[in-house]
Design goal:
Structural class of chain A: mainly alpha
Oligomer: homodimer
Shape of chain A: flat
Mean pLDDT of chain A: 87
CATH topology of the largest domain in chain A: Tetracycline Repressor, domain 2
Number of domains of chain A: 3
Helix content of chain A: 55-70%
Radius of gyration of chain A: 30 Å
Strand content of chain A: 5-15%
CATH superfamily of the largest domain in chain A: SLC41 divalent cation transporters, integral membrane domain
CATH class of the largest domain in chain A: Mainly Alpha
Distance between the termini of chain A: 75 Å
Chain lengths: 476, 476
């Protein structure tokens, strides 16, 4: 426990490591430039010494902190540091690192070293990172396992992404209803230390069917001869491995759970979910959603190679380009109108922009409501009514302001009124689209965070151009 | 524990409640329209019966689920349901509800009922919701407390928002180093049940200075005559009440903590942080960030009154309007160029839009890196170089595509090249702004999630218009 450290310590370590590795890079560059052999020896010694110093700095780090340092290093430094880490520590850091960084680390690791690192992983951790391990190495590992272990590994790997099965651990401590507290404790002592997050012992019958949970805190204060069935909770919330991790996460948050049993369709206990895995899942899901809303396809290593980054950003950039082309075709319909009054060209982006902004505010609220299950079929009409009224009132207020601005700039009353009208129309459309688009994507079984924003912006851009230029042609 | 239920049950309950309340609303409207007295009586009976049914449905709900149902109801229904809830349950639901909904509930509660509800809260919970309780009622509650309790309450309320002090609870179970396990357990039995999240007993000396933590799991398996100091962890990660909740949350995630002691500047134990409070904080922070990035000032009740919603969205709408006006002024500089070739007006929004999209992708990555502390002074140059190269390569690829599109539409080579050049320039500026703006906001001590997007869009809009129209004037 003593290697858990306050944030500031960790930042100091990170900064030290970066500086030591930077110094080495400079030394290496110098060595390349000159060929005085003696100097070269001195510099190599210096480099070696710097690396030893780096090793000293990271030696006492918690695996999670080591993963953090690796994640925060630019790619070259990351590789250099990675090579300095002992296989056992490297294995733990690999489990803790974020997926994109884990992938990058594995790709720069030699085959022999990777085998040694992987040999330090237990089954749960191996299943967890299996997706990123090269197929041939995974096959060797599989071959080296006992039959039951191999079966368990196959099963674990087979659980779909974001399922309870993927997050659960198979490490479980069990007891029997008919035992007394002292019998149960004697059993547990034989197994050795309890895991850190055990807030209860799962109680099963002879066929391993889950009967209840005996809370650790109750066991602690119970009389030794008390029967387990008198102090267990008989109706714990249990999950199935194929349940969605998202649903389990909500239950953990709502009911403040620390652990929950995972059972199969016949009620047999096969594993448990713990709050630390659930917390990681929540953080990653929130993170992925924020990135998706900005039009990034997946998580991206902050120091990913250029080509990988460019690829990650391509799909939505392409969609954006297409929609922008289509939306601006509406402007093309009014070229003669613009020819008559070029001021229109300077004002039309304002109408589009205000609409996009409003639409995306609504999108953010609706996506959040969907994530928390607060948007139900019964409440959608209320929601639409509210959003339309909000945007109508905002439209009148801000539209008038914009109209006054246009009047001030170009001195034409009618132009101001056209501007106001277009803003009101676009804000109302923006609100409707902001509710409808994420709901439609959700109904189609897609992630509303991914794409809602681009689609709504497309709608508000098109509407903004059409409404403004159309009104202008009618009234100017 | 038996009132924890799977998600689907809960949605059924919510749907039932909404339908029952809807039916009542219809009955009420009918009653207004006709004045046949007998019918009125029947309908009132029916209404009463519906409400009884609603009460039955919510009677067994966990407080967190009750809060969820309240959050998911449109405002009228919410008030009706709220009035049906017993003060004790109402108190718990109030603690669990999200701040905006809590505020709304309190505002519709009569003074007498609110007093009764608040009388059911313990000190920690009272401090937690104190901000939303009307000043005069809070004064009365304060006056009714014993001196020590009042002092504790004042202290708790005084901790700044998002501090460890705000999240911590004062409920702590302590022991002494010199005790044996059986002595400690005897002490604990006198106090009654341990709290659900106790994964350790805090060990203090005679002056209440924290000495260590004795893990529950170690106590459970220890021999009764073992000394506490032989099994306690002596160097637990402890927080101060004035520490930022964000830092504590990161430590909980990183080290998979369940509880952590909170000590004052003299090392005395004054409370503890538990993982459930930390999880709520993480969810709320992620949530607030997603909303902030969409330009919403704060959390917003999905069914907030129109005026409150309009106000919540006003500040960023206003900023957006201002920046849009300024950005489009750059178009104004080129009115004669547009007059010569109206096609420019249809193409310029594409350049602006692609830039905005790219810039905001970079912003999302940088904000995430800042949130995880992965962006350090030493790594910023690497990050900028990478983002510039990514956007340069994307600029060349997508710029060429856009140029070909323009060529296809208008049949002019030079126009296509101008378009390509403008896109390249704008994407490079977008990358630079996408890194620089959030970093600058962070350096200024502001939340980079709030405002980065608007500022970057302003920069890319302006650059897009300027680069495209400027190049067009030069070469066309």
């Amino acid at each position: 426990m003593s290697n858990r450290r306050p944030e500031t310590d960790l930042h100091q370590t990170l900064s030290d490591v970066i500086q030591l590795l930077d110094r080495n890079r400079v030394l290496q560059e110098l060595a390349h430039r000159q060929d005085t052999p003696n100097r070269d020896v001195v510099e190599r010694l210096q480099q070696r010494q710097n690396l030893v110093e780096v090793q000293r700095r990271i030696a006492t780090l918690h695996p999670a902190d080591l993963a953090f340092v690796l994640e925060s290093l630019p790619r070259d430094d990351r590789s250099t540091l990675w090579e300095q880490i002992e296989p056992a520590e490297a294995a733990e850091a690999l489990v803790e690192a974020e997926p994109t960084v884990r992938e990058a680390l594995i790709s720069v690791t030699g085959r022999r070293r990777l085998q040694r690192i992987i040999s330090h992983l237990d089954l749960d951790d191996l299943a967890w990172i299996a997706d990123d391990v090269p197929e041939d190495i995974l096959r060797e590992v599989r071959a080296s396992l006992a039959d039951t272990d191999r079966q368990l590994l196959e099963q674990s790997i087979a659980y779909p992404e974001h399922s309870v099965g993927e997050l659960m651990t198979r490490e479980i401590w069990t007891g029997r209803e008919s035992q007394t507290v002292s019998e149960l404790l004697a059993d547990l002592r034989v197994r050795g230390a309890l895991p850190e997050h055990a807030d209860g012992i799962f109680v099963v019958d002879g066929r391993n069917v889950l009967k209840g949970v005996a809370p650790t805190r109750a066991l602690l204060l119970a009389r030794p001869d008390a029967k387990i069935d008198t102090l267990m909770e008989t109706d714990p919330l249990a999950f199935k491995p194929e349940d969605q991790a998202e649903e389990a996460a909500k239950a953990f948050e709502r009911y403040d759970l620390l652990t929950a049993p995972v059972i199969n369709e016949r009620g047999k206990l096969i594993g448990q979910l713990t709050v630390d895995a659930v917390m990681d899942f929540i953080r990653e899901a929130a993170d992925a959603e924020a990135l998706a809303m900005a039009g990034l396809r997946g998580g991206e290593d902050l120091f990913a190679p250029i080509s990988a980054s460019a690829r990650n950003r391509t799909p939505w950039l392409f969609v954006n380009l297409l929609t922008a082309f289509v939306a601006t075709r509406f402007i093309g319909l009014f070229e003669s109108t613009i020819q008559d009054m070029v001021a229109l060209a300077t004002l039309m982006p304002i109408v589009a922009s205000v609409g996009g902004n409003t639409g995306n505010q609504t999108v953010a609220l609706v996506i959040r409501g969907l994530a928390f299950d607060q948007v139900t079929r019964d409440s959608i009409p209320h929601l639409i009514r509210k959003e339309l009224l909000v945007s109508l009132s905002n439209g009148v207020i801000w539209g008038s302001l914009v109209g006054l601005g246009a009047l001030a700039l170009y001195g034409q009353w009618v132009l101001g009124l056209v501007m106001t009208g277009a803003v009101v129309i676009n804000l109302v459309v923006a609100a409707a689209a902001g509710v409808a688009v994420p709901l439609a994507l959700e109904r189609l079984g897609r992630d509303p965070a991914q794409g809602s924003s681009v689609l709504v912006t497309f709608i508000t851009d098109s509407t903004g151009f059409l409404a403004f230029l159309g009104l202008a042609r009618l009234f100017l």
